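F-box domain-containing protein, Erythranthe guttata. Tokens?
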Amino acid sequence: MADENSEISRFNLICIANIISFTSPKDACTAAAVSVGLNSAAESDTVWERFLPPDYVEIVSGSSSPVAAYSTKKELFFSLCDSPRLLDGGKLSLRLDKSTGKKCYMLCSRQFQIAWGDNLMYWTWSSLPDSRFAEVAELQSVFWLGMRAIFQAELLSPNTNYAAYLVFKLMEDHEGLDCPSKASIKFVREKNGSGIEEVDKTISNVYIVPRVMERRRRIRRRRGGLPGTTPNDRVSRVRSDGWLEIELGDFFICEGDKFDIQIDVSETKHLNWKRGLIIEGIELRPKEVS
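Tokens:
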């Protein structure tokens, strides 16, 4: 009888684990705190392996950065959330969104197509200790700002609304970056082997340095203080890693999408000299629902 009850309990545990695996990482953590029985199910590899991306084995084996030792799939999941993994020879970084398990990618600025990016008079390349990448782009001085990043849609998690973010820093003596820049996101693909077809496109104005921030910066610089900030959602904000970011637009990835995501940022209307921008990369991550 005891063996029969034990077998029933084990069967129930497996059923509960399967049910929890269809929820979310956040829900699984909540369930684990409810009772001892639910904790055993919610902590199981059955649950957390479903939250990992289907290609997690290839991600771990192909990472340029070491993956911390783990004994459970839950430990691996949170390791991939908390520590971005460098892929493709350090050109790309990947982490998982902690609440959904969806993939978040950042492409390093070295992989951008940057106007005059190969001329050291206008752009230079340096290493910063707080960057995940070996190099970042530093704007010395240009009057025509233009950059492009290209991602493959099939890398991203399907059935997900993504947003693109420019990740950057500003030098203390930055100038000319308070004009609105144009950001565009295009879906492009080959058209039956006869050129490129534009599937979809979104365009928005973004402010790397809002004019109100620029005015406060100049005032505070005269007073010996630090740059001001602004609560505007469409302008730059500080990230948890200390860098700044600005949303460039959003888009939806469907199951089986196969096209290139072309992201452009430019400012060519106001031909003033621009300098003091440090670019780490462009990140794609699931868009937060407000």
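The first helix runs from residue 2 to 20.
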